[in-house]
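Task: encode each sequence below as structure tokens.

Item 1
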Amino acid sequence: MLPKWAMAGTKYTIPVTLGKSMPPGATKTPVDLSVTGYRLAWAAISSGRPPALDASALTLAGRDYRNWRIWASLGLIEPYDVHLLRRTKHFAALDPTEKGHLNYALAGAIAKAYAAEKLGCRWLAHLSLAQTSTSYQAAFDPANPKRPDYIGLTDDGSSFFVAEAKGRVVLRSDLKKALDGKEQGKAVASVGGQPVAARYGFAVTATTARTGLYVTDPVEPLQLDVTARQWIHRYYRMMVDIADAIDRVEPAPLRQGDGGGPDADWRPVRLVVPEILREWATGDRDPLTEWDAAETLVALSLGPSAALNPDLTAFVAAVTD
């Protein structure tokens, strides 16, 4: 389920303020993030749960979790002109703990959308999930008790990084200082036995005036021994599972809005994994040799009404009676 405004295909601008020493992809004009509602929904359901680490994709709990992530992220904001603003009445009715959960969900979604667009990374794993895998376990600095939110791997499989994502109404100076100093990111010394290449800090601010993003980190490029084909194969296996699970289960009506009743502005959608991506998932085709041509093939197969995500999956409106 998505709000109607998110299904219009309109691109919204999230102003971005850069910290020092950001990589070239982040400093290239325009530095702001331009994102559709579909792209935010994709980021919400995939942020923190990458391939081989998510065992819940086919479960009822996994479906409900992703529905909640979409509602928590997109239900917190609404469009105004080309910007996204916090919904005042909706947010004011919540207690501080509930506000914290929604801020965290929105921060994770926008951080994921930004990382995919500007930093060359479509995959972010929650640190707690990465710790369950021997391949992606983090080694910590024993002198630092702090922990970041995410571990990431760049699209080309060459570099691990860590990231901290905060959601706030105002970016206070103490939080900015902590992100600039990488206080939580420095706690991770290595991932899977490989040194960490970068430590990003994200701060998403959502107010009644605008939703914005602050991101900071110095660049430390490294070449790591990671198999890109295996990572892509596992990723699309997961996306196939998620898409098929959504098709098999009719989502329960989401309740939202100031009156607490069903929100008529939400509509059902499907997540489509095109056939070429399904063959990447099974290993029948090689994504590394086909990636450049895949976007054109997928766009032609789905038609102009589909909203392509950075991983070439797509959201389409579900047909209802």
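Item 2
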Amino acid sequence: MPVLPNSQGRRGGSTANRWYETFKNIKCGPSSGVLQLSFNIGGNNNGITQIEVDIDPNDFADLVDMMYSANAHATVAVMSAKIAQHISREPTRNEGVVRWARGELSDLAHRKALDAWSNDEADKFAASVDALIQELAEKEKAEAEE
């Protein structure tokens, strides 16, 4: 599991009136479908206490929100670069992700339109969104064949 070289943690407690231990060597990586943070702190009798924190994928959106709140520019810059890097490595998998995302967009457009308009208006709007999605897919296919 890779180490986060620029990160650190602090330890304190109810009996301490300050942070009394700073530690580095925080590891972060995937583990059984979750993002896992792992680190060690001093334990009783000069021992070492190992700590692991599992971040569930359902919490990833909150994690990104917190990262953005901490430093919006760095979050957008790093995430954009990393997503582009991963997409370029996995074209087949990403085709499936793109198809899924387009389907989700179509469903969302239809649901939101139904909330705001009559069925006929919502159907027309959703059909327009579907046409744009199809046009984009055809354009990407043509570019890939060139």
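Check on item 2: The helical segments are 60-70, 72-89, 91-116, 119-145. The beta strands are 9-11, 21-23, 27-31, 34-42, 48-55.
End of task.
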